[in-house]
Amino acid sequence: KAGVTQTPRYLIKTRGQQVTLSCSPISGHRSVSWYQQTPGQGLQFLFEYFSETQRNKGNFPGRFSGRQFSNSRSEMNVSTLELGDSALYLCASSSPGGETQYFGPGTRLLVL
Amino acid sequence: GQQVMQIPQYQHVQEGEDFTTYCNSSTTLSNIQWYKQRPGGHPVFLIQLVKSGEVKKQKRLTFQFGEAKKNSSLHITATQTTDVGTYFCAVHSLVGNTPLVFGKGTRLSVIA
Lengths: 112, 112
Description:
The structure holds 2 protein chains of 2 kinds. Chain A is mainly beta. Chain A is built from no helices and 11 strands. The mean pLDDT of chain A is 95. Chain B is mainly beta. Helices cover 0% and strands 54% of the residues of chain B. Chain B has no helices and 11 strands. In chain B, strand 9 (85-93) and strand 10 form a beta hairpin. Chain A binds chain B through residues 33, 35, 41-45, 48, 55-56, 58-59, 90, 92, 99-106, and chain B through 1, 31, 33, 35, 41-45, 48, 88, 90, 92, 97-105.
């Protein structure tokens, strides 16, 4: 099976812009979670989607949003970018009933 | 919300020395997972521990879950340069339907 894929892999934006990141889970996986990884804060949970519904949400401002499509692909959007949003954004999928997270390679976002 | 403390934050060892990282929670855990992230890579699942006092081995890696299910450790015997990376624990609390919470990780450097 192909692994979790994320696009784009690298992105440079300026403050105030918005960005959309995409994640395609492993075939058959219906749960997709998003994490923000920074050197200082480690891996922080953003949100989890299951069957197109947001199941859990982390402690991030409303500028961070996401959605999941019927084919389980997921997108996350960050509006009004701030310098502090520079990070590696990781997407992970898990199988039905499974708890193991299978991570994608991540999208590295740099906000200037 | 669920929090988990992981120590140490950094560890530098000579090749051939042993290494241990610890994960501690103030609340009883449903299970605990361990992940490894190589430099420039993404977290990769290593193992999940579920039972009180459980011990699992993967070659030179030994994973333990405490009797009270509040702490865990990962021990690497005779480290090699291929062990370099950051090791994360990740936990689910006993409260249902909560997201996986990651520790801040222990970054291991191995000096040849």
